[in-house]
Amino acid sequence: MPEQPPPRRRRVQQRALDTRELLLDATVGVLAEQGYAQFSTLAVGEAAGVSRGRLVHHFPTKLALVEATLDHLVERYRERVPLHLDLITDGPDEGRIARALDTLWSLKRSREYAACLELIAGARGDEELRSALRKFDGDLNAALDDAVRRLVGIVADRPGFDAALMTTISAMRGLLLTARALGLSESDLEGEWSRMRERLVLIFEEYDPAGA
């Protein structure tokens, strides 16, 4: 059995983990609520109630903070997606595709994904940020792919299914970016999503005729 650190060291380690978690959550909040233009390590420290010295101790650069936040969001996503699968499988076959699309949409409507959208919007002139987002996008899609395979099994291996799924993700992301840029109201956004979902159901009907 591995030797346990002394109680005082364990308390110090736990405080460090708590501070790190606090800073990552504050980063999400600043991005989602204030936007990328207002995002800075100073703003994050103020939102978290953490001194600049403590913040720099955990994250020496703004990029390090962003990269850690993106990894944090992937883990959150991996935890949450399986919890939503019952929302899809419970209920009649009819409407299953729409339920699956609505479930994915609800995950994309989260505060965490809103923070990601702000980073995407701000990445145009920042190659380091673009590189971090490419890794995040790959990790996020891998997490989604794991969940989808648990849901649909070998259907995920049928020709064209991956392309249909990526089309869906891109369409949702595009709609959400447009909504944030133009300041669409909640009702207008949901109306746009309702129309988009109708078209997406037609794409997936090929793979789940009974679920249309």
Task: Describe, in plain words, how this protein is organized in 3D.
This protein has 212 residues and is an all-alpha fold. The protein has a domain at 62-206. It contains 9 helices and no strands. The chain has helices at residues 7-34, 41-48, 52-58, 62-89, 96-108, 111-122, 127-152, 161-182, 186-204. Helix 1 (7-34) packs across helix 4, helix 1 (7-34) crosses helix 6 (111-122) and helix 8 runs antiparallel to helix 9. It is elongated, with a radius of gyration of 20 Å. The model has no long low-confidence stretch (mean pLDDT 89).
Element layout with pairings:
Blueprint: H1 7-34, H2 41-48, H3 52-58, H4 62-89, H5 96-108, H6 111-122, H7 127-152, H8 161-182, H9 186-204
Helix pairs in contact: 1-2, 1-4, 1-6, 4-5, 4-7, 5-9, 8-9
Provide a quick synopsis of the model.
By secondary structure, this protein is mainly α. Helices cover 77% and strands 0% of the residues. One of its GO terms (molecular function) is transcription cis-regulatory region binding.
Overall geometry comes to: elongated
- The tally of beta strands, per DSSP, is 0
Instruction: Give the oligomeric state of the chains in this entry, treating copies of one chain as homo and distinct chains as hetero.
Output: single chain
The H/E string reads: HHHHHHHHH
Radius of gyration: 20 Å
Helix share bin: over 70%
Low-confidence stretches: none
C-alpha termini separation:
54 Å
GO molecular function, one term: transcription cis-regulatory region binding
Domain HTH tetR-type: 17-77
Organism: Streptomyces populi
Keywords: DNA-binding, Transcription, Transcription regulation
